[in-house]
Amino acid sequence: MDKSLSGRAAIAGLGATEFSKNSGRTELRLAMEATLAALQDAGIDPSEVDGFSSYSVDKVPEYEIARLLGCNNVKFFSQIPHGGGAACAPILHAAMAVATGVAKTVVVYRAMNERSWYRFGSGDYGFANTPTFENVNYGWYMPHGFHTPAAWVGMFAQRYMHTYGATSEDFGRVAVAARDFAATNPEAFFYEKPITLEDHQNSRWVCEPLHLLDCCQESDGAVAMVITSAERAKDLKQKPVVIKAGSQGIAQGQQIMTSFYRDDITGLPEMGVVAKELYAQSGLGPDAFQTAVIYDHFTPFVLTQLEEFGFAPRGEARNYVMDGHHARGGTLPINTHGGQLGEAYIHGMNGVAEAVRQVRGSAINQVDDVENVLVTAGTGVPTSGLILSAA
User: Are residues 237 and 207 located together in one domain of the fold?
Assistant: First the structure.
């Protein structure tokens, strides 16, 4: 009996709201809009949904979406922790449920008013009032000024620069390429607003070595997808997008954005765990991808992820981006929707959506002859990844 996950399930429907800084409606409303759009895209009746997966930080409960959809018997539901590290994991969980027969039609979703309702980068999290393990752990860092994700990532970036000679301009090339793609994507918040490397260098410091333009947006919006069996997906409205591989990863010494006590903090070993598993499941390697969606909450970790997946040797991703391999017309265009730097920050779910469009051949910045797309989730935390492929 073949127990491999590879190729057993497919993404059959895709839906999204607009991306904004003030949606003007509840997160539940956003989730329902995206979910109904995804079901309509697939040609599946809402009553057929029997599974859900989302993020533990998503404030929209699956039972309420099930009630509003008119679902009869929901047999599977899961929530994945660690914020952006969950970006690919709901699709993995849905694929496992479908491949094992636990559920037949699973909706994955992420809905958030992260700009108009609350802000992850505020530095004010109420940790002292909720002394759980994770919050107490931050008590060792916050007295030293490590209050925000930018500060946490800044520490890793400083060490990477010290060890490998990377510069702020190397990080800036990631931002410039992302904004170039966003500038031609009408759905992107920064549509028609490209930047230059000079713009990047002149943007204000947020937490050295991170400039403002090294940091992702804060956005309102929702994205949803429908996962079913690869066999069934062949008979539905859209070109099937096969889930070729999926993985989650935790590595030794892992903490939440503050894994500073590892022997070496210039890499992302949890993403290395994901890379090895994705390649093992799929039988593919770095040369198999025509495009990729690399989680870009902060530009330095894009370089590190390129190294973990073998697109560049350790410490040499700066040369990779200097040569423009990641940009429009490069050998591996990344974040062709504009990424979280340029399109929107929907905790990476909008990046999975772009991978679906690339495989379908319907992306605004479509890459030629796409067969396989790599997608990664948030870094600095327990994370996840996907390979999505043409049928």
Answer: no
